[in-house]
Amino acid sequence: MTTHDNPQVKLAHLDAHSFADWVGAGDATVLVPVGALEQHGPHLPMGTDAILSERIALAVAAATGARVAQPITYGYRSQQKSGGGDHLVGTTSVDAATLIGLTRSLVRSLLEQGVRHVVLVNGHYENYQFLYEGVDLAVRDLGIGADDARCVLLLSYWDYVSEETLEAVYHGSFPGWDVEHGGVLETALMLHLEPQLVRMDRVVDHDPAQLPRFDRLPVVPARTPSSGCLSAPRGADAAKGRLLFEQVVRDLAADLEAELGGRPVSAPGAAPSSDAAPSSAAAVG
């Protein structure tokens, strides 16, 4: 049995009484994968963001004793400089208020039932600040303070890709997170996790997108490469995907065990940051 088929990990496979017993035992942690339905070029499925966030969450849960809720599979509108743009066919999005409200309700419901920790594992860059707002509202709804045992963590999985892994995957040719949509990282991960869904014969080879430093609305469609990808996935393979997946899962699981076990995590040599913003250049998903 593979991790993603394990009924002991997915909340959807538990009966309500078993869920109540697990929560009642204390210290229950639930991971919520968040993705999108978004075009990822001609070679990747539109559900790539949701697939990757769920598979990472399932592996982390198996390693830590957490469980995984049903994923949020629709995300905020694709932006031209991070996902090619919402004008591209196949991208099916929700408004900010919808994502905020759904996140708020879901997080609040889990915490009200006795779940101690909720962890949102984001796989679509544009979601982040709206997820943050939903979490913040839920925490305020419940009056959870800094000394409360309950908490919510929010992260984007690509922030766990180490510099060493980047070098091993890209060999010094990393184009930057801002043009990685549909590129090597997502393609390699999908080749490792769901190879039957990847069509490498349809890959379009082109240089990374050259986009202005500003956003223009409405967008200029011609600025997005015709493939829908912001960089070509040249060099992506399953071995690189396995390296990425295993390193991200290992480090994320270690962070969760440390943070939720009472040992706050910060970057090596750095003080913990209160900045809520995502990585400034990340555009995976």
TrEMBL record:
The keyword Zinc applies. It holds the Pfam family Creatininase. It is an enzyme of class 3 (hydrolase). Its EC number is 3.5.2.10. It comes from the Bacteria. One of its GO terms (molecular function) is creatininase activity. Residues 266-285 have a biased composition (Low complexity). One of its GO terms (biological process) is creatinine catabolic process. Its cofactor is Zn(2+). Keywords: Hydrolase, Metal-binding, Zinc. PANTHER family: 2-AMINO-5-FORMYLAMINO-6-RIBOSYLAMINOPYRIMIDIN-4(3H)-ONE 5'-MONOPHOSPHATE DEFORMYLASE, 3-DEHYDRO-SCYLLO-INOSOSE HYDROLASE. This is Creatininase. It comes from Georgenia ruanii.
